[in-house]
Amino acid sequence: MNHVLCGLASNPALPSDLVDRLITTADEDIAANLTEREDLTRAQAVALASPPM
């Protein structure tokens, strides 16, 4: 668990482009924090729910 990245994922002030970058590298802990964000776009939610390639 990377506490810094989990904290960033929870930060409501994090810009959308950085949320996108976190989604692409998210492990289970980071993904869990990202799913709690209220500002996810549909595309971000779909990317987060998609299995890694």
Characterise the protein shown here.
With 53 residues, the chain is mostly helical. It has one domain. It contains 4 helices and no strands. α1 runs parallel beside α3 (28-35). The longest helix is centred in the middle third of the chain and has 10 residues, at 16-25. It is globular. The N and C termini lie far apart (21 Å). The model has no long low-confidence stretch (mean pLDDT 92).
How would you summarize what this structure contains?
With 53 residues, the protein is mostly helical.
The count of β-strands is 0
- End-to-end distance: 21 Å
Low-confidence runs: none
The number of domains is 1
Q: H/E element string? A: HHHH
Share in helix: 55-70%
- Give the biggest sheet: none
Oligomer: single chain
Kindly report the average pLDDT value. 92
Morphology = globular
Helix and strand content put the structural class at mainly alpha
Please give the structural blueprint.
Layout: H1 3-10, H2 16-25, H3 28-35, H4 42-49
Key attributes of the depicted protein:
4 helices; 53 residues; mainly alpha; single chain; 0% strand
